[in-house]
Amino acid sequence: MATIAVIGTGYVGLTTGACFAHLGHDVICADIDPDKIERLKNGEIPIVEEGLDRVVAEALAAGKIRFVLGATNASEHAEFHYLCVPTPQGADGSADLSYLEAAAAEIGPTLPKNSVVVNKSTVPVGSTEVVAKFLNRSDVKVVSNPEFLREGTAVQDFLNPDRVVIGASDQEAAIRVAALYSRVRAPIMVTDPVSAETIKYASNAFLATKLSFVNAIATLCEHVGADVNDVTLGMGYDKRIGKEFLKPGPGWGGSCFPKDVAALARIAEDFGYDFTLLREVLAVNEAQFQRTAQKVLDALGPDAQGKKVAAWGLTFKAGTDDLRESPAIEVLQRVSGAGAQVVAYDPAIPSEIPQLPLVQVVSDPLVAAKDADVLVVLTEWPEFKFVDFDQLADQMAGRTVIDGRNLLDRAILKRRNFEVIGIGR
Ligand code: UGA
Asked: Which of the listed residues 173, 191, 209 is the one where a domain comes to its end?
């Protein structure tokens, strides 16, 4: 078992640290935020992430995980150093590496001899070299080990991954990192760092492409009178296509896809290749936000002013409290911008959010629906399926539901005289 320092306790870092501790390693997690560190020492998890609280609590009780302030306090005691710091999108679409560079520069001087530094953050192609430069240590190897964790199922994804990718120019370092996963049942693939970095971007960009394609097919279904649910079911039986990731929606979002697709397009451009397909993938997504908003506005009639919209869902997908790049926010900005009054409910969001200054957030889906002319569903929280629809009918002034996730049971709504407008049906 190894001693692993994890630098950055965001959802990737905290999940990585907690899961490595669960696998039996000794983990020291570091962050620059003193409040966060204090809360984590008490087992308080700052994010909504299924199962993470239990894994952290068990690791704390077993003495397998510690939380410290500052990267050096973790790194000077460890053999492996996982960099899990943010790489936000810069103004020109490229990834901003300043956190990564600062972390590498900070830990470089005090790293134990022959330790291995691992890039877990999604970093531009070539960043393994950048980290090596900022570490400035000839005895320390830098390895890429990209994460493929989904928010909401990150613990499961870490412990039961589809694959583990290791990018290293040094074979011994690759073997040492691979050994950290010896208790995980998954194919371990070793390649060079640039290929590992590209695998991460290509995977996210492919999935985003799949979703933009599905959303475009949904639009086509509306034009030709097909039902996208049946179309994607029929497509998904083909093993080459697969059943996963075929659900149309109000557009895709989150902290990863928009940033990574833009970054990959930018990387391609920097290397002299105009990746037009990716630009179209982003454009189709923008159009999907607009189309979903337009459905709501069309249902309100010629003038949205003074009309009331109930919105169910604010997070970028169910199972998380993450609002970053949420399609729901994109849609509601357009709806409230047109003059409609919006009242929203989301089980993970207790109060108003700065991104939507004109939107009131309430703590009950039926309260949100009070006197609403139109209801729009924007996040696929399962609980929306089990709302009392008789009460919903009593509460609402209008009878139109825009189901942006094709989530609700149409028959139940139709029996209560609702008109249901979905995506692609
Ligand atoms: C994504 C990837 O799925 C992870 O593999 C990757 O590790 C992660 O980004 C990352 O780079 O860190 P995540 O951002 O948690 O994970 O979100 P997803 O579950 O992939 O969903 C992204 C968006 O696509 C959401 O807005 C979701 O609602 C939408 N989506 C997903 C659909 O509209 N339809 C689907 O069928 C699936």
From this structure: 191
